[in-house]
Amino acid sequence: FLSGKRALVTGSTSGIGLAVARALRDEGAEVILSGFGDEREIAALCDELGATHVAADLTRLEGCEALMEGAGPVDILVNNAGMQHVSPVEDFPPEKWDLIIGLNLTAAFHTIRLAVPHMKATGWGRVINTASAHSKVASPFKAAYNAAKHGLDGLTKTVALELAPYGVTANCISPGYVWTPLVENQIPDTMAARGMTREQVVNDVLLVKQATRKFVQPAEIGALAVFLCRDEAQNVTGANWSVDGGWTAE
Ligand code: NAD
């Protein structure tokens, strides 16, 4: 049902973004991938998905502008690129703060402001922002990430209100822990910050929050993104959808 639609998914060379890109492609959308990684692997992904790839560092304004220029007009914009750093607030490196706010929040502002004119002109558009359970509640040692994701929720609501008259919706998807490289890579830092073993971090920090006691699978996020693109979801806007195994219900 998405044939004829062009979808840009940031951070789609890996993890959740790749699953979202696959799901949109499976519904017929033309997909534009973005993100870093091994060149040969990205070329293989482009072949598999019939996609193009635009590389850009989205922590920088010029990178965001280059991405939107390279991607061309898009009907579906999925702001998904993100990074994490785990550290007590007093030791939190200021440059990490800037990078995380830049990638997880400011980049979405830039891509949205550059994508919106086409969506308004055609009278149809979907903005989907990958936020996090950390857009609703906090965990210690993630000052920048929590701040960025809470901010992304506010940005999404604002865009939803502004664009409601134009057939454009904007929503957040807020996963709990999804088994991706982003989660795997923060385990050593969390072990250090909390003085725990790997097993303790997985069971007592990560999955302890999810009543289902299961990691979310990337494809589950892809399925929700597809739903948000349906015409039946035209009145779903300004919402923040939890896919967190019950974490934020408590
Ligand atoms: P991931 O590390 O697997 O993928 C991150 C993607 O972002 C990659 O494609 C990477 O190349 C890209 N990226 C990294 N730095 C970039 C930069 N400077 N410029 C452009 N692109 C860059 O991560 P993931 O787990 O799939 O996370 C995707 C999103 O989901 C993030 O916004 C993350 O905060 C959010 N999220 C993840 C989880 C989880 O448990 N994995 C939970 C909640 C929210």
UniProtKB/TrEMBL annotation:
The domain of life for this entry's organism is Bacteria
InterPro entries per record: 3-OHbutyrate_DH, KR_dom, NAD(P)-bd_dom_sf, Sc_DH/Rdtase_CS, SDR, SDR_fam
What are the entry keywords? Oxidoreductase
What GO terms describe the biological role, i.e. biological process, of this protein? monocarboxylic acid metabolic process
* Pfam entry (one): adh_short_C2
User: Gene3D superfamilies given for it?
Assistant: NAD(P)-binding Rossmann-like Domain
Give the SMART domains listed for this entry.
Answer: PKS_KR
Which residue intervals define the domain Ketoreductase in the entry?
A: 5-176
Output one GO MF annotation: 3-hydroxybutyrate dehydrogenase activity
What's the Enzyme Commission number for this chain?
1.1.1.30
- PROSITE patterns in UniProt: ADH_SHORT
The cross-references to PANTHER family, in alphabetical order and at most eight, read: 3-OXOACYL-(ACYL-CARRIER-PROTEIN) REDUCTASE, 3-OXOACYL-[ACYL-CARRIER-PROTEIN] REDUCTASE FABG
Q: What is this protein called?
A: D-beta-hydroxybutyrate dehydrogenase
What is the originating organism of this protein? Answer: Tsuneonella dongtanensis
Quote the gene name from the UniProt entry: bdhA_2
